[in-house]
Target: Orotidine 5'-phosphate decarboxylase
Amino acid sequence: MTTPDRVIVPLDVPTREQAIELLDLLPEVTFWKVGLELFVSTGADILGILNERGKKIFLDLKFHDIPNTVAGACRAASRYNVDLLTLHATAGRSALAAAKAAVSIAPSPPKLLAITVLTSLSARELAFDLKIPLELPEYALEMALLSQESGIDGAVCSPREVRELRRVCGDDFLLVCPGVRPDWAVKGDQSRTLTPSEAIAAGADYLVIGRPITGADNPREAWARICQELAAV
Ligand SMILES: O=c1ccn([C@@H]2O[C@H](COP(=O)(O)O)[C@@H](O)[C@H]2O)c(=O)[nH]1
Model:
């Protein structure tokens, strides 16, 4: 896999037309993410379009519910021929195991990724608003380990925690990092960020990079700058 293939670009737009515009503008992108905004706005249509174009698909719907409901949603999602699918680690051990069992019967099951701690959250919010008594890096690791023990294939984590998760969870556990910002891009609502080259060097398998590319004045130029940065890693 070449390094640009390790960058997943989110289609965080509200319409099918805007999504197709991005696909046409960035034909070099091999891996696209469909998240809540596009899926809730337009339904599963876009997944068929991505499949027809031979793209890899990360369906990032972040399921978080009781085990029976999570299992049903994962079973349904696994019929769309997607490569990656998310749920929250905080749904708990039974829900994680039920999700794994549900997708396992699909002809080509997606890999399941558990969200550890959203990359928008700061240590302060985790402690004071969410009342989590562990330090943020320790909590992210605990969520990854719980997911791994429950049979989940990998985790979504901030690039700031990826080195430790890689060390403890091993090379077979897939680690996907949003919260990636080139040094020329604004952070926006992301709290725990590193640059693309730092995130890869720290052990991420895949990076999710959205607005620095899709929100740029010239998305093609932004994509090329990121590929250039990663070529030097
Ligand atoms: O912890 C998480 C989990 C998922 N995301 C998603 O990744 C992209 C990031 O987009 P940017 O524009 O690069 O910020 C977005 O679709 C999120 O829903 C995340 O950011 N953090």
Notes: The mean pLDDT is 97. The radius of gyration is 17 Å. The longest helix spans residues 136-149.
